[in-house]
C-alpha cells in the first residue's frame, strides 16, 4: 500500500538513482540533548527522519541504497529492557518497516553496521549532527586513509543538501499541517490581547503563548520573543524581563509547532489606546513594505527582488521620517537602510522554523510553486534617532507561493492595521 512516507522514500530512491552513480543516504534520529547531568531537554525528532518515516523513535537510522538488493534499511538498537522500565517501551518499528518495505537490521554497533552497509557506494549523503550514527559514519569515512577506505564511498555530501531537494516544495499534506499550526499561533495571539497592557511583563505574555501552544497539543517552535519598547531593537531578544508601558509597542515573534510543523508570526502591537504620530508612521511604513513584498511573491520571482521591494518601501519611509536623506536610487544603491533593516526578508518554513532551501546557507533563491516562506520586514532603532525612541517594528506572515501570487496562511485571523489594533481593546 502506498502511504505518505513510502511515496516520499520512493521519490528519494528515484532521485538518488538519477545521478547514475551508486548513491546512498543515511539519516539518523536526533540525539537526546543533556539539560543538566542526567536530565534531558524534551526529545525532538530529526526533521529529515520524520519527513521520510513519521517516526519519533530514538537511535534509529534510515539508509537508502537504490543500487542494492535491499534498497531501504532501518537500523535499530537491540531492545533495552532496563531503559524501558524508566521510559516505557520504544515504539515498534515493524509497522513502519512494512510500509517502507524496509529490511530491519538490529545492531548494537550502528557505526560498524553502517560501514558494512555502505560498502560499494560511490557517494554517501550523511548528516553532520553530532551524536548521530550518520555523522559518526561521516567522521569515520573522512578520517580513513585511502587504503583503508577501499570499496567505501569516496564522495561525502551533506544529507541536507539532498533532502532539501524534496522538502523545499511542500505537498498538500504539509500545507494543511502548516495552516493548522498557523491557526493555533494566530489564536494564541488573539487570546493574549487582554495581557497586552501597561504593567504586564514580557515573560507573562511569553508564558501565556507557550501555555496556549501546549494546551493545543503543540509546543513553541522556537524561543518566543516578546520585546517591549526598546527591547525590540534586539532581533532575537530573549530577556523577557521588561514591563509594558502605555504609548510604546510590544513586538511578539512567536510560532507554534503542531504535529511537527512550524508557523512563525510577528505582530507589533501598541500598548494602551494612543500612540505618538511618529510611531504610527513607523508602523505604517513597515506594514506597507510587508504588504508590497507579499504582493511581489509568486513562482519564478527571485527572493532578492522580494527583499528589494521591501527595502525600497522602508527607505522611502526612512526618508519621510527624516532619518535618511538624499536621492532614493543612491540610498538604495549604498543600502543606507541596512543599519535599520539588518536581516533578510524571510525564510523557508516547514518541519523546521528555518526550513531547508536550495540556495547557499539554506537561503531561498528563486520562488517556486509550493514553497512556504515568511515575509517579515522590520525597522529597528537601538537608540533614539530623529523623531523616534529606541524601538523596533517587525510584521511577519507565512505565505504559500503560487504560480500567480501568494496565499497568506496567517491572514485574516490576527489584524495588522494599526487603527484596528488600537480599537481592539
Ligand atoms: Mn521568521
User: Distance between termini?
Assistant: 53 Å
Low-confidence stretches: none
CATH superfamily of the largest domain: Creatinase/methionine aminopeptidase superfamily
Helix residue percentage: 25-40%
| Strand order in the sheet with the most strands | 6-5-4-1-7-8
**Number of DSSP strands?**
19
Protein described:
- By secondary structure, the protein is of the alpha+beta class.
- It folds into 2 domains: 4-167, Creatine Amidinohydrolase, Chain A, domain 1 (3-Layer(aba) Sandwich), CATH 3.40.350.10; 172-423, Creatinase/methionine aminopeptidase superfamily (Creatine Amidinohydrolase), CATH 3.90.230.
- The chain has helices spanning 4-17, 47-53, 81-87, 94-100, 110-118, 133-143, 159-167, 172-192, 202-215, 277-296, 303-320, 328-333, 418-423; strands at residues 23-28, 34-36, 39-40, 61-64, 72-76, 103-106, 123-126, 155-158, 219-220, 225-228, 249-254, 256-258, 261-262, 265-270, 372-375, 378-381, 391-394, 397-401, 406-408.
- α5 crosses α6, α8 (172-192) packs across α9 (202-215) and α10 runs antiparallel to α11.
- Manganese (II) ion binds at residues 264, 347, 374, 376, 396.
Summarize the structure.
The protein has 425 residues and is α+β, with helices and mostly antiparallel strands.
Q: Can you lay out the helices and strands and say which pair or pack?
A:
Blueprint: H1 4-17, E1 23-28, E2 34-36, E3 39-40, H2 47-53, E4 61-64, E5 72-76, H3 81-87, H4 94-100, E6 103-106, H5 110-118, E7 123-126, H6 133-143, E8 155-158, H7 159-167, H8 172-192, H9 202-215, E9 219-220, E10 225-228, E11 249-254, E12 256-258, E13 261-262, E14 265-270, H10 277-296, H11 303-320, H12 328-333, E15 372-375, E16 378-381, E17 391-394, E18 397-401, E19 406-408, H13 418-423
Parallel strand pairs: 1-7, 5-6, 7-8
Antiparallel strand pairs: 1-4, 2-3, 4-5, 9-12, 10-11, 11-14, 12-13, 15-18, 16-17, 18-19
Bound molecules: manganese (II) ion (MN).
Manganese (II) ion binds next to loops.
Amino acid at each position: 500500500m502506498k502511504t505518505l512516507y513510502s511515496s516520499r522514500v520512493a521519490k528519494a530512491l528515484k532521485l538518488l538513482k538519477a545521478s547514475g552513480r551508486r548513491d546512498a543516504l543515511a539519516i539518523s534520529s536526533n540525539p537526546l540533548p543533556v539539560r543538566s547531568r542526567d536530565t534531558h531537554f524534551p526529545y525532538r525528532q530529526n526533521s529529515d527522519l520524520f519527513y521520510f518515516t513519521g517516526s519519533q523513535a530514538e537511535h534509529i537510522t534510515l539508509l537508502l541504497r537504490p543500487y542494492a538488493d535491499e534498497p531501504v534499511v532501518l537500523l535499530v538498537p537491540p531492545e533495552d529492557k532496563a531503559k524501558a522500565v524508566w521510559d516505557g517501551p520504544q515504539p515498534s518499528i515493524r509497522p513502519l518497516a512494512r510500509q517502507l518495505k524496509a529490511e530491519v537490521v538490529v545492531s548494537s554497533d550502528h557505526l560498524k553496521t553502517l560501514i558494512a552497509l555502505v560498502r560499494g557506494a560511490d557517494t554517501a549523503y550523511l548528516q553532520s549532527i553530532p551524536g548521530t550514527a550518520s555523522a559518526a559514519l561521516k567522521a569515520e569515512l573522512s578520517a580513513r586513509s585511502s587504503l583503508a577506505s577501499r570499496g567505501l564511498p569516496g564522495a561525502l555530501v551533506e544529507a541536507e543538501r539532498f533532502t532539501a531537494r524534496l522538502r523545499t516544495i511542500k505537498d498538500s499534506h504539509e500545507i494543511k499541517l502548516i495552516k493548522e499550526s498557523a491557526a493555533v499561533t494566530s489564536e494564541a495571539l488573539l487570546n493574549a490581547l487582554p495581557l497586552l497592557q501597561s504593567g504586564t511583563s514580557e515573560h507573562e505574555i511569553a508564558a501565556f503563548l507557550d501555555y496556549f501552544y501546549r494546551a493545543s497539543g503543540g509546543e513553541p517552535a522556537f524561543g518566543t520573543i516578546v520585546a517591549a519598547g526598546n527591547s525590540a531593537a534586539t532581533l532575537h531578544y530573549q530577556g523577557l524581563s521588561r514591563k509594558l508601558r502605555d504609548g510604546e509597542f510590544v513586538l511578539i515573534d512567536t510560532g507554534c509547532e503542531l504535529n511537527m510543523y512550524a508557523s512563525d508570526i510577528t505582530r507589533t502591537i501598541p500598548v494602551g489606546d494612543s500612540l505618538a504620530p511618529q510611531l504610527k508612521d513607523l508602523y505604517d511604513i513597515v506594514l506597507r513594505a510587508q504588504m508590497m513584498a507579499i504582493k511581489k511573491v509568486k513562482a519564478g520571482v527571485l527572493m532578492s527582488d522580494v527583499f528589494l521591494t521591501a527595502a525600497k518601501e522602508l527607505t522611502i519611509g526612512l526618508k519621510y521620517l527624516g532619518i535618511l536623506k538624499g536621492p532614493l536610487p543612491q540610498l538604495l544603491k549604498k543600502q543606507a537602510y541596512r543599519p535599520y533593516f539588518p536581516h533578510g526578508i524571510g525564510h523557508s518554513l516547514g518541519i523546521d522554523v528555518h526550513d531547508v532551501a536550495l540556495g547557499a546557507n539554506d537561503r531561498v533563491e528563486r520562488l517556486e510553486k509550493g514553497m512556504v516562506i515568511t515575509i517579515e520586514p522590520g525597522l529597528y532603532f537601538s537608540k533614539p534617532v530623529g523623531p523616534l525612541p529606541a524601538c523596533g517594528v517587525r510584521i511577519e506572515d507565512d505565505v504559500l507561493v503560487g504560480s500567480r501570487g501568494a496565499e497568506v496562511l496567517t491572514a485574516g485571523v490576527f489584524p495588522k492595521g494599526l487603527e484596528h489594533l488600537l480599537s481592539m481593546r
